[in-house]
Amino acid sequence: MAVRALIVDDSHFIRDLIRRHLERIGCQVVAEAENASQAVSLFRSLKPNLVTLDLVMDEAGGMDSLAAFRAIRADAPDVPIIVMTAVPFGESRETFLSAGATDYIIKPFNNATFEQIRRKLAGKFPELKGSQPSEKGAEAAHR
Prior knowledge:
The chain is α/β, with parallel strands linked by helices. It contains 5 helices and 5 strands, in the order E-H-E-H-E-H-E-H-E-H.
């Protein structure tokens, strides 16, 4: 089964960076959304089995998206939603995890971050490749 991913981030640069990494480890990126309303529509129509989600977007925050995804997941409870954000959570980690996220990654991204993503997904999707990315510009990537 192919890992079909939806990437949600208002930054084209970050979406491209995440897409390249996900494709490198064997995911098929079926769509990219730049806001919460696009994300919900694409999720409903394409039914991906993985979602990456930025929490701070122009139109609506990712927490709005998480609430919508939680309702959608009544039909797909096993779809991982990995939050990727520049906002540190501290004690709020449990709050957003209980809102429907599977896990979170703090930006800025670097090679270790992408390896962490691969490891987090490996348990759910054993078909993913184990190669580590070599993005030189990844260290500077953040929202």
